[in-house]
Write a structure and sequence with these properties.
Elements lengths: L1 H17 L2 H101 L1 H51 L3
Helix pairs in contact: 1-2
Length: 176
């Protein structure tokens, strides 16, 4: 840009030497306008280049932010998906445990019901066994009573016979 100014200035000086005063002023004014136009164009180009660079930086920053946001959103979605899978796994496990508990409870109830049915079916057998046991005890008591009665009857008979024998013996001793 400085070279352009120097070249323009030199050409102005050369033009002054050759042309008349008005022509020189007009030429200087034209050259000045050209220099101003060149400076304005250079300034405009610099400003446009700076604007383009700033726009490119802004676009790059926007793309970087968008990429970062997309990456963060993907991570959040992945984390939520993992949490949902873990929650579903734990929930499924809890449901499975509840199902097993219910199955065990039902099995236990069935076994108790079978036991009650077996007892009801066998109730007559239990009653008969109790009656036989009572009858057996009654028979034992009756047998003991009979045995005691027999012993006492035998003892009575023995004593009576012994008494009669003593009476007979004493009547033989005294003379009869």
């Amino acid at each position: 840009m400085n070279r352009t100014l120097i070249a323009l200035t030199l050409s102005l000086l050369a033009a002054q030497a050759n042309a008349g005063q008005f022509d020189q002023l007009h030429d200087i004014e034209v050259q000045q306008q050209q220099v101003d136009a060149a400076q304005q164009a250079a300034y405009q180009r610099q400003w446009q280049e700076q604007q383009a660079k700033a726009q490119a930086r802004d676009d790059a920053n926007r793309r970087a932010r968008a990429t970062a946001q997309a990456h963060a959103a993907a991570q959040v979605a992945e984390q939520r998906k993992a949490e949902a899978q873990e929650h579903a796994r734990l929930e499924g496990r809890a449901e499975q445990q509840e199902d097993e508990d219910r199955a065990l409870d039902i099995e236990e109830r069935k076994l108790k019901l079978q036991e009650l049915k077996a007892k009801a079916d066998r109730a007559n057998d239990y009653i008969d066994a109790d009656l036989r046991s009572s009858a057996a005890q009654t028979d034992v008591v009756q047998s003991k009573a009979d045995a005691t009665r027999n012993v006492s009857t035998g003892t009575k008979a023995l004593l009576e016979d012994t008494g009669k024998a003593d009476v007979n013996r004493s009547s033989k001793l005294f003379g009869n």
